[in-house]
Amino acid sequence: MASLRKRDNAWNIQFYDQQKKRRTICPGKIPKRDAEAVLSVVESLAFAQVSGRTPDQDVARWLTQAPERLVEKLPNVVL
Question: What's the pTM?
Fold first, then answer.
């Protein structure tokens, strides 16, 4: 489970990785609706990582369509 928090007008997503270390992704100053979409993707990716499964097709599609600056933040944390 991941959480979404607003800090200094920017969104932060916090979750635990497979080593049970708390991680943070900062998508930045984006609308809440977009931040919630990123949260959903991060949750799916974190679950896939922990369970040893591949992400579902919706998440894979989202990753191909998401802004590059955002996708670049994910490999360091959940991919």
Answer: 0.83
